[in-house]
Amino acid sequence: KMAATESEEVPSISKFLMDCSPKDIALNWLQATDLTKDVYHHLAYFVPKIYCRETNPNPLNEEMLAQHILLEPLEWYLCGEDPAMGIIKLEKANKSSQLCGRVFKIGEPTYSCRDCAVDPTCVLCMECFLASVHREHRYRMTTSGGGGFCDCGDTEAWKQGPYCQKHEPSGSEALEEDPLEHLSEDMIGRAYNIFAIAFKYAVDMLTWVEEERLPSGLEPLEKEDTYYCMLFNDEVHTYEQVIYTLQKAVNCTQKEAVSFATTVDRDGRRSVRYGDFQYCEQAKTVIVRNTSRQTKPLKVQVMHSSVVAHQAFAIKLLIWLSQVIGYSGGLRRILCQVGLQQRPDEDHSSLIDKLMLCDSKLWKGARNIYHQLFMSSLLMDLKYKKLFAVRFAKSYERLQTDYVNDDHEREFSVTDLSVQIFTVPSLVSNNSTLIQHSKMYWCHLLCERQFALVFLN
């Protein structure tokens, strides 16, 4: 009966949400005296009505509603007009980047020139490679494991031919031009406001450890007794153990258990039961009991549906930020400034620091998305890449320790960004901390390769 009530309720909720006007919401925000409070009030009300309302949520329905009622108001506010027109204006005013920065997907081909690459980590995407001089040289093609990006346009990555035809700068282009010059003062002010709120919300929710309550300003007016039993991935238990345990814990078929296990392995976590607290707690008890006899038990949490909903939207928000800064180098620089701004209330650390230092606690899906945002923002702005390198180096020993102690998702670690920092001469030179960790990085890489050679032989 509960499921029937849900299915009848969702269409009416969807109609109600689609009738809301993103333009009117943004106009109210433009006149707000406390923008953060108003935006959080909006998210507190609407996010749990869009995400995680059913046993098996409909991703397409969530996507449509989130775009209309959550993201479009942000775009209206940012542009100060219809975003369909505002985004076109941003793209026209934007100065094309000389860096490609394409983030590689798993299995995507990458190309390295044996004659011109400064080191084997310097690679090109297929489009840049085919439009470069390197296609006529000796080259090596490999498939990406995901997480890296195209080095076309990076003059320190290539002995010659750093640009493909698409990214070749014209003689009149000033390399050190301030990208903010292409934005109006009003646009800059609105971007600072909305990026600061959106980025802080996303970081706070992804690093949130409470299972039942939400951060201040996001608490729902009425708290329903709806929870998810969330199963997390690890590097200890086998597929077979997880499948067998799930069949026992949630009374599902083998086919359903295989689907659960596959999603957990791919995304890092998955809900395996939805219902009231007691119903989800029963499943958790069985999972822990069945997997703790010989090894550390599987990580499983009973989380309130509103917490899961806000974390789902936090990931969506990081994807949105990555897309928006792609329209304008000025918007990219503003997001970099917001992310690296030191906050007195957080021991003078930044939002970027907070994400990095929580990396080993995050699940694979969250890590992957924020790593991609770092690559499309901080590593694509040469000025802020240097500032980020300093912050990264200061936390490097802690990040390495967390990586060693990490019992899950080691193939998705923020320490992978080391290659984008410690191999770049202009970043490392004249900074003792970066020089020290650069030496550590190369020693570590050499040891890994020597071990691999011994193992293969």
Question: Please, could you describe this protein's structure?
Answer:
The protein is mainly α. Helix content is 55%, strand content 6%. The chain is built from 19 helices and five strands. The strands form two sheets. It has a three-stranded antiparallel beta sheet with strand order 4-3-5. The protein has a two-stranded antiparallel ribbon with strand order 1-2. Helix 3 (35-50) packs antiparallel against helix 4, helix 7 packs antiparallel against helix 11 (305-324) and helix 8 packs antiparallel against helix 10. The longest helix has 25 residues, at 432-456. It is globular and about 65 Å long. The termini are far apart.
**End-to-end C-alpha gap:** 62 Å
**Largest sheet geometry:** 3 strands, antiparallel
> What share of the residues lie within helices?
40-55%
Mean pLDDT: 87
**C-alpha-based Rg, rounded:** 24 Å
Task: Write the H/E string, N to C.
Answer: HHHHHEHEHEHHEHEHHHHHHHHH
Query: How many H/I helical runs?
Result: 19
Shape assignment? globular
Helix/sheet category? mainly alpha
Number of strands: 5
Low-pLDDT stretches:
1-10, 448-457
Strand content: 5-15%
Largest sheet strand order: 4-3-5
